[in-house]
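This is your field. Pick holes in the following sequence-structure pair:
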Amino acid sequence: MHGPPPAKTRQPATGPLRRVLRLIVEVDESPTRLNRIRAALLLIGLLTAFGLLGYWLPTLLERAWR
């Protein structure tokens, strides 16, 4: 008799997106004010870095190709 295949244990996802989502949740639900402030500052810094990279990288590439 054949039964259902054995269930594979699923490992939690890890990666940059998971860490960003964890920061967002920590800003919202952390019990200590210091952890919330730290997570908020990290999240703001990360968003700022992405914004600057998205603005300056095309400009630098355009200047390099002229």
